[in-house]
Amino acid sequence: MEIGVQLDADRTGAEELVALARTADDHGIGIAVVTGRRHADAWAVATWITGVTERIRVGVAPRSEPSDPFDADSAVPAVAEKATATLAALAPDRTLPPGARWTLVDADVEAVRAASGSSIPVVPVHDAEDIARIAPLAAAPGPAAPAGRRRRSALVLAQRVPGIDYDAVPASLADRAVEPGDPEHASVASTYLRGGAPGLVLRPGTVSEVADAIAFARDHPHVPLGIRSAGHGISGRSTNRGGLVISVGSLDGLEVLDEDRRLVRVGPGRTWKRVAESLDPYGWALGSGDYGGVGVGGLATAGGIGLLSRKHGLTIDRLRAVELVLADGTPVRASDTENPDLFWAVRGAGANFGIATAFEFETSVVGQVGWAQLTLVSTDIEQSLHRYGQLAGEAPRDTTVFFVTGRQRDGVWIVSLYAVVDDPDPDVVVDRLTPFLDLGRPVRRQAVLTPYSGVMGNAADIGPEGQRGFGQPVSRSAFVPELTRGFARDAAELLSTGLVYFFELRAMGGAISDVSPDETAFSHRSPRFQATAMSSSDDLLTAEWDRLRPHFDGLYLSFETDRRPERLTDAFPPDVLERLRRLKARYDPDNLFRDNFNIPPAPIAAGTDAASLTEDAA
Amino acid sequence: MNDYGHDLLFGSFPSPVRRPARQAVDLAVASERAGLDLVTFQDHPYHPGFHDTSTLLAYAAAKTRRIALSGNVTSLPLRPPLGLARAAATVDRLSQGRFRLGVGAGASWDGVEAMGGRRLGAGQSISALREAIGIIRDGWDADRPEPLRHEGRFYRVVDGDRGPRPYHPIPIWVGAYKPRMLDLTGAVADGWLPSLEYIEDGLRGITDGNARIDEAAVRAGREPSSVRRMMNFMRTGLGPAGQGFLDGPPEMWIDRLTALALDHGISAFIIGGDDPGLIIRFGAEIAPAVRENVAQARGVRQH
């Protein structure tokens, strides 16, 4: 049985505490928790113990008082966290994981047994005799694992999050479920830009397993719920702390349904890089974003503003049907002819309506494209922005150019342009892109003719260590109807503050605007650009970004981390939101899917049956 | 020409890098094997590539037997003084007197603030350090019966716990460059711990700094020799003569360090760099020769 000893620095000095830890280690006791501070610094003692013993793990009691710079005896919490990480690195497997719970109990067999299972029983010891007395408990067998479940050590079980009923994980999902103490947890905890520590990651591989996962989530309405395809999402909603994540990464197939109609069926977990590779041999492509590491599910339920969009539309514009599992576990199919209202909603607000398990797209015929990455040095960012707006906004449809810059360095801005010209003729490509070289002093010009897979191939493959984001991303999005002089001036001013380390403009228009705004829940069809800004300071960026609002009309939810409720009306104009709320009341009345730009279900009048709510928009 | 007559210390300054995780500990052990007296680590916990130095010091102390250890220098704004005193005393007890407290008023304020520390102006941070040194020594004074109380401009202690008492009187070494910091060093510190590369005017700056510390010490009623003068050297190499003060063949090191000891009163020489070969030769070849030169010269002066 896994038990620990409490070494109390309020009673005993450092040398004696270390001696007790050595004795406990000799007796096969696995854990020492150092508490108190009157006679020694608990962390220094714990650190020393790892240096002079061979096996015993150490931990300290968390400090509960708030950090106060005037209090000469307070601790800076981030420094304490760093200390924990440092010792874990210096002495691997010798520290108590930060999430592991322990309970102080008397040195009594029954008390120890009662405490074990969900936490580590920790027994106070004051001398070697105390340790000898409890040592037999350490040798006793621990509680057995539930039948048919993966065996987990007491230390892993002690890291379970309260409020999650781990023993109720459906049998179909139990084998591949990941808990905080599992070795693979770190590889599934975080997303591309956001650090996370979910309490449980469920990894369904079939439609019925998705339904099982949803049923489990329904029983846990009090913890966050993230839905993940490949975990790239900039806003980071596909992870959380202490909640559930349903990861459909293994639903990653691609199948050609009808070669004449160029119809393909794709799983939500496939990355766009792999989609592009699979479509290459057919001479087809599906416009995605600008990065191959993004998963299909997140993009195809939000919009998909990419490097082929001006020619071929948004990713959702190529969608012909989608299959998803609703909050009540029902698998449904939605298209223009089946559940058309749901089909409308999924294309822009999909995260609120279900977990998609398959997408059917009509691909575009795309041969060799011109793919350019240009780097320019700008001394006048306002002018560069404005000129870019003129060129990119008025370029022919075959040309989509994105503009990226960041902090000023040595008095200049580095501008990167990412451009696709959907034309196999090198002369046309050069013709289209040459005007953009005016935006600054070109320092790198790289242009190739490549299939679209060469454009998506820019993404690094995600290795076994998974996504490695940390902290909370701070990102803002806005649609910019026209790139006016005023916008260029105010954006240049924002960039001059040094607050923004990444700033991007994506050219829209073209085929995106061919689609009527009421065709899909993504209704921003007329803006010429989408702007994204990332910063390390949420408060400061909020203030600066709010100053630019007069230039904006709405936002793209995938790039927005501001969680103030009014952002919802930026993502969805009032009439769209109203329609979405009515549909939400029908498809997810209990608001299970609530963690990504949550659309509150419309209130249901007394005596009205939710299913009878009629859909009168459209 | 100053020589305060301290015994000479030779030390290293490994980077507290996070990867490889144990590199800094290995270099501490290598420093001990090389016969060095001291191993020190810079303290920048907000640097993502670095360890927490406080933890690293305690762990390295547990993995060594003879060598002394110190932060070089500890960032006070992230290490509130009473907790710092307790951790220092704890490691000093466990290591049987091998801990030294190198401390600074704070630098890299953006990093400090990002980690949740308090940002202070230059003048404020010096006043805070002065308060902190008082609290630290009060905390080590474990035999006094009354609880620790302090009500200052920057720190407050309400009925704090004293102790534990360190194994030995832990010297407090201050990283100082500007006049007010040098004044503080002379008035209350046990050592001056700057880096040569950051001293304006190089050797001339050492002379000026020493003079300022001497005056401050005398004003405070202390002997100037109660403040040990130490020096970090960041640019080091044993190749053909390069840019750094200690960047050339061993003979050059020996001559220059001997002169620093005899003419500038420097009695502790701490070299940066993560090259175990350099550490070994510093301990095995250079340190003994400098010790011998200085002992000889001091002997001649005494007669």
Automatic annotation (TrEMBL), chain A:
Keywords tagged on the record = FAD, Flavoprotein, Oxidoreductase
Domain of life assignment: Bacteria
- For the FAD-binding PCMH-type domain, which residue ranges apply? 193-366
Pfam families, A to Z: BBE (PF08031), FAD_binding_4 (PF01565)
Q: Which GO terms describe its molecular function?
A: FAD binding; oxidoreductase activity, acting on paired donors, with incorporation or reduction of molecular oxygen
- Name the coenzymes or cofactors required: FAD
Q: Which family does the record claim for this protein? A: Belongs to the oxygen-dependent FAD-linked oxidoreductase family.
Q: List the protein's name.
A: FAD-binding PCMH-type domain-containing protein
UniProtKB/TrEMBL annotation, chain B:
Domain (Luciferase-like): give its ranges. Answer: 20-232
Enumerate the UniProt keywords alphabetically: Monooxygenase, Oxidoreductase
Q: Enumerate the CDD domains for this protein.
A: Tetrahydromethanopterin_reductase
Question: What organism does this protein naturally occur in?
Answer: Actinomadura livida
Example of a GO MF term: monooxygenase activity
Matching entries from InterPro entries are given as: F420-G6PD/mer, Luciferase-like_dom, Luciferase-like_sf
Kindly name one Pfam family recorded for this protein: Bac_luciferase
Query: Superkingdom of the source?
Result: Bacteria
Protein's name in the database: Alkanesulfonate monooxygenase SsuD/methylene tetrahydromethanopterin reductase-like flavin-dependent oxidoreductase (Luciferase family)
